[in-house]
């Protein structure tokens, strides 16, 4: 039986690792991309290889701040049925303190280089009867966040791309969607502490922060056959914080 391969961009991050484990559990073979967290991704590779010996798990190293990374990644990937973009970094700065380089790097990592990568991978996706692309967007890409204007803009661009590209490749049976998490309890949100953290918690109708598993479960659904008629959507995973 042929193996189904998914590329997890940003597999070494907390959300990326959880997505990788969830998709491996569902039977996927994986390309595990990382930029610099080699130790974490190798531990992930070892765990998955041991747990799922009938599947394949392949490391792909590339820094998405470098345009050469796109060519390198595309050349490293052969059979491909799904791509999940879970890479990226946030930026907590007022706009007056945000440099041109800050903005450039956010857009390169979150939108510019992923778009260029998809342009090279599309032919590998469309050979299948169905294929999937999922971006991990953000609540801030929809509603915006004070002191995260540049980050919100990059995530908003991701959401806009999802809606446009979904139309472009629909007849090729490629679904394109985004998951827009609210506050997920990860190290990326560790800068939110004390009273500020409690204030955010008070705003969430469910009264709890999200887990990486909440994001991974949604991704697993979107790349499954159960989501075959869903495309161009921004799926909110935020406990009712933004509706």
TrEMBL record:
Signal peptide: none annotated. It comes from the Bacteria. Pfam families: adh_short_C2 (PF13561). InterPro entries: NAD(P)-bd_dom_sf, SDR, SDR_fam. CDD domains: SDR_c. Belongs to the short-chain dehydrogenases/reductases (SDR) family. This is 3-oxoacyl-[acyl-carrier protein] reductase. It comes from Psychrobacillus insolitus.
């Amino acid at each position: 039986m042929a193996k189904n391969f998914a590329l997890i961009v940003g597999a070494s991050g907390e959300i990326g690792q959880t997505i990788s484990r969830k998709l491996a559990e569902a039977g996927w073979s994986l390309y595990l991309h990382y930029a610099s967290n080699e130790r974490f991704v190798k531990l992930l590779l070892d765990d998955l290889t041991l747990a799922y010996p009938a599947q394949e798990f392949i490391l792909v190293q590339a820094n998405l701040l470098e345009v050469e990374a796109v060519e390198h990644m595309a050349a490293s990937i052969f059979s491909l049925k799904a791509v999940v973009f879970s890479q990226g970094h946030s930026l907590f700065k007022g706009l007056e303190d945000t440099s041109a380089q800050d903005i450039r790097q956010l857009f390169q990592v979150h939108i510019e280089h992923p778009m260029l990568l998809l342009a090279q991978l599309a032919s590998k996706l469309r050979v299948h009867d169905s294929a999937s692309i999922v971006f991990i967007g953000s609540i801030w890409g929809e509603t915006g966040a004070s002191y995260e204007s540049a980050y919100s803009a990059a995530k908003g661009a991701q959401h806009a791309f999802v809606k446009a590209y979904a139309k472009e490749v629909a007849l090729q049976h490629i679904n394109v969607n985004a998951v827009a998490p609210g506050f997920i309890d990860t190290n990326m949100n560790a800068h939110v502490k004390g009273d500020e953290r409690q204030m955010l918690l008070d705003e969430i109708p469910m009264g709890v922060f999200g887990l990486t598993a909440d994001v991974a479960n949604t991704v697993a659904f979107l790349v499954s056959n159960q989501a075959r008629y869903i495309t161009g959507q921004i799926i909110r995973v935020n406990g009712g914080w933004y509706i």
